[in-house]
């Protein structure tokens, strides 16, 4: 859903710039989207979120793809180029609290409270809140997935006191009201 919102935004901009062109959106699922019960590091493939898109471009099934830069490999296949980079959304991290912790901040959570996050987001927060326990939300089977999945599991289970996500994704989904705290 988040990828579709992002794609719709890019296509809307393209339609404004090129009103005489017709744009058709072709939805695709990638390996990273399909395998949700295994940690990404254990799947053993590179380009988990881009390979199918690259294949569609090579077969001329699509003319361009829209994707988050964070998932792109550091070097593109021969003949491929990044054609545009859209204005960046809010680059900050957002803390979404379990309903039982609504109204709190990370500093007000009890000692040893478990915070779910990705490893790239946890280092600065661990340093500031050493009394909290941080677990990599994407390394646990069944805990990876889109924002909808992560938020649902936060609400329905007692595994985490809070989770840390990209504020931009929550904003794009229209869920800014779920943000309990913003982290720089």
Automatic annotation (TrEMBL):
The EC number(s) this enzyme carries: 2.5.1.61
Entry keyword annotation includes Ligase: no
Enzyme's top EC category: transferase
Origin: domain of life: Eukaryota
InterPro entries in UniProt: HemC, Porphobilin_deaminase_N
Name of the featured protein: hydroxymethylbilane synthase
Source organism per UniProt: Eurypyga helias (Sunbittern)
Keyword Transferase tagged: yes
Family in the record: Belongs to the HMBS family.
GO biological process terms on file: heme biosynthetic process
Single GO MF annotation: hydroxymethylbilane synthase activity
NCBIfam families in alphabetical order: hemC (TIGR00212)
Domain Porphobilinogen deaminase N-terminal: residue ranges: 1-181
Keywords: Porphyrin biosynthesis, Transferase
GO CC term (a single one): cytoplasm
């Amino acid at each position: 859903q988040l990828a579709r919102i992002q794609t719709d935004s890019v296509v809307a901009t393209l339609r404004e710039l090129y009103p005489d062109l017709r744009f058709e959106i072709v939805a695709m699922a990638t390996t990273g989207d399909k395998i949700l019960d295994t940690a990404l590091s254990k799947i053993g493939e590179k380009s988990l979120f881009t390979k199918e898109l690259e294949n569609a471009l090579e077969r001329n099934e699509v003319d361009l793809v829209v994707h988050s830069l964070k998932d792109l490999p550091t070097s593109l296949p021969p003949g491929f180029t990044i054609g545009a980079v859209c204005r960046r959304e809010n680059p900050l991290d957002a803390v979404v609290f379990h309903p039982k912790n609504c109204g709190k901040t990370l500093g007000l959570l009890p000692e040893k409270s478990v915070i779910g996050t990705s490893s790239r987001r946890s280092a600065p927060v661990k340093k500031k809140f050493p009394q909290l326990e941080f677990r990599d939300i994407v390394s646990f089977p069944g805990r990876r997935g889109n924002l909808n999945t992560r938020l649902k599991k936060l609400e329905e289970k007692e595994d985490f006191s809070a989770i840390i996500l990209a504020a931009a994704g929550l904003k794009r989904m229209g869920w800014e009201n779920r943000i309990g705290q913003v982290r720089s």
